[in-house]
Amino acid sequence: MITEETVDELAACLDGAQRAVADTESLADTHPLTIDDAYAVQKALLGRRTGRGERRTGVKLGFTSKAKMEQMGVSEIIVGELTDAMCVADGGTADLARFIHPKVEPEVAFRIARDVDVDSPDTDIAACVDAVAPALEIIDSRYRDFRFTYEDVVADNTSAAGYAIGPWQPLQDVSDLPVRLRGESREAAGSTAAILDGPLNALRALLDMARRRGFALRAGDVVLAGAATAAIPLTPGVTTCEVAGLGQVSVRCV
Ligand code: 0L1
Ligand code: MG
């Protein structure tokens, strides 16, 4: 385990990169991290954000597709935290100047209805959720050219940079719904089944991670369950995610 001082130093580096909109080198060469180290850096990073007055709004899951897990050589999802500063209203505007090299993913979001007892073996995570919505996630790795190790990306709060949530709908079966992501010049199509064979499985994987990694899941939290297609670059103009039967959400980038 790296020292507390190093945890703070690495969190300051990643925080500085995000705030200065300037990429940084992978940490792997200079600071070989364990996965425990990486989550400690992520926690310190969130502490810096909340210390400046940002409010935590939920969590996001990454590596929820088999293809991405294989590419990274891992077998578990990664979890990052969301804050109100990352939230863009549905139909709202995001300033591209805030980001280094942003990409966007079509996702499904869940809303946690009550505080979750993550340590109880009897907890049924699906029963703690009351709504589901189409969502867009903006990812913006702080590492040069999006080149990172598994530990790097966890330390960097799993590239979390922004999100928008469409109209909340009552919880329903979202295990295999067609998804379309449309930017001004690129688009992608897929299915919610790409998210761990159904986003409810992603919720279950999140509960396991919450137990093992100490994430809180509280009433009102948003959970971004993972991407239904590969990310596309976030570019000027309108980007829309449509999930069949759920609705759509869009952001306009300037
Ligand atoms: O799925 C995701 O939200 C992406 C997680 C981080 C990996 C990346 O930046 O590509
Ligand atoms: Mg994502």
Task: Describe the 3D structure.
This protein is an alpha+beta fold and 254 residues long. It has one domain (4-253): Alpha-Beta Complex (Fumarylacetoacetate hydrolase, domain 2), CATH 3.90.850. Helix content is 24%, strand content 30%. It has helices at residues 4-20, 35-51, 66-72, 150-155, 199-213, and strands at residues 56-62, 78-83, 93-94, 103-112, 129-139, 160-165, 169-170, 178-182, 187-191, 222-227, 232-233, 237-243, 247-253. The strands form two sheets. Strands 1, 2, 4, 5, 6, 7, 10 and 11 form an eight-stranded mixed β-sheet that branches. The protein has a five-stranded mixed β-sheet with strand order 3-13-12-8-9, with no helix packed on it. A hairpin with a 4-residue loop joins strand 8 (178-182) and strand 9. Helix 1 (4-20) crosses helix 2 (35-51). The protein is globular, with a radius of gyration of 17 Å. The model has no long low-confidence stretch (mean pLDDT 96). The protein binds hexanedioic acid and magnesium ion. Hexanedioic acid binds at residues 60, 62, 105, 137, 139, 141, 146, 153, 158-159, 226-227. The site of magnesium ion (MG) has 9 residues, from strand 1, strand 4, strand 5 and strand 10.
